[in-house]
Amino acid sequence: MTVGSYAGGLWKIRVELPDDYPYSSPSVIFVNKIYHPNVDQVSGIICVDVLNRTWSPMFDLVNVFETFLPRLLLYPNAADDPLNTEAAALILNDKETYEKKVKGTYSKYCIYCYQNISIKVVIIYTT
């Protein structure tokens, strides 16, 4: 991403497909830490409701990587059932401190920090 709080970061993502995929949405998990109201700080799991609300069997994993994840990072949803309540409170009440925490976690845990690039997707298949 070239804009927003998470601009220039590269995170490792794990995607788990349910047995009834594509009728149910995949689980998307950040492997390395990210400070975000819709991501659990310990497990890295993205709030299921955030993905399920918009999921359709017509979507595929390309939609997850090209649309859903960039939108999640650009427009965090702090108001509806956040998994990281501290991040949600900060984004709503103290944006400056939120940005500092994002950048602190970002610089410590993102795989690599790029400058002036669009979002990069690295897909690693495991069996």
TrEMBL record:
This entry carries the following GO cellular component terms, namely: nucleus
Q: Which organism is it from?
A: Helianthus annuus
Among InterPro entries, the record links this protein to: UBC, UBQ-conjugating_AS, UBQ-conjugating_enzyme/RWD
Q: What is this protein called?
A: Putative ubiquitin-conjugating enzyme/RWD-like protein
Which Pfam families does the record match to this protein? UQ_con (PF00179)
Give any single GO term for biological process: ubiquitin-dependent protein catabolic process
Q: Where is the UBC core domain?
A: 1-111
Q: Name one GO molecular function term.
A: ATP binding
Per the Swiss-Prot or TrEMBL record, the active site comprises 47 (glycyl thioester intermediate)
